[in-house]
Amino acid sequence: MTDDCMTEDWLLRAEEICMQCGGHCCDEAHPPISPEGHKRLLSLGVSPDVFESVGYLRLKVQEDGHCIMMKDGRCSIHRIKPETCRAGPFTFDVTGDQINVYLKHERICPVVGLLKTVPEAYRTQYDLAAQNIARLVAHLPPDELCEICRIDEPETDKVDEIPRLDA
Ligand code: SF4
Ligand code: SF4
């Protein structure tokens, strides 16, 4: 099997797992949006009505609890979705100049089982997550970052520490 086939294989398996899951990570998701991300999403045609500020800027949810950008069971802004959506199932908090990276438990995100058994899948998704998290942290105003770091992230394990780009 070539490397390309292997890549395709785990990506297809990941897509299948996410389809079966039905986007659990988009329920009550409220991804945080940096000022730069806000400007970018608006410039790409996203409505100003989908955002709310609760000490930091984030996407709203619909009445049924799904993220406001979820349409017909899919992310309607998949290609331009916010950093924390790209980073999943990794998440983060910040201690001083250090970003702590966490991985969700398989119980709440079934694709974690695949990441733990396919090193290439883990490495690829971890790298994407670390880049997106570091960029988001660098672009968030300090008070908004503090608010976001107060959000409890149960059922996660710390897997790494990375330096802040803005430290
Ligand atoms: S990333 Fe995890 S929680 Fe989200 S849809 Fe895929 S399996 Fe479900
Ligand atoms: S922006 Fe898309 S991927 Fe992110 S929580 Fe909303 S629907 Fe899910």
What this model shows, in words?
By secondary structure, this protein is α+β, with helices and mostly antiparallel strands. The protein has one domain (3-163). Helices cover 41% and strands 19% of the residues. The chain is built from six helices and seven strands. The chain has helices spanning 3-21, 35-43, 83-87, 111-117, 119-139, 142-149, and strands at residues 51-53, 57-59, 70-71, 74-75, 90-95, 98-104, 156-163. A hairpin with a 3-residue loop joins strand 1 (51-53) and strand 2 (57-59). The radius of gyration is 16 Å and the shape is globular. It starts with a helix and ends with a strand. The mean pLDDT is 94. One iron/sulfur cluster binds at residues 17-18, 21, 23-25, 88-89, 109-111.
Task: Reconstruct the topology from this structure.
Blueprint: H1 3-21, H2 35-43, E1 51-53, E2 57-59, E3 70-71, E4 74-75, H3 83-87, E5 90-95, E6 98-104, H4 111-117, H5 119-139, H6 142-149, E7 156-163
Antiparallel strand pairs: 1-2, 3-4, 5-6, 6-7
Helix pairs in contact: 4-5
The structure holds iron/sulfur cluster (2 copies).
The site of one iron/sulfur cluster (SF4) has 12 residues, from loops.
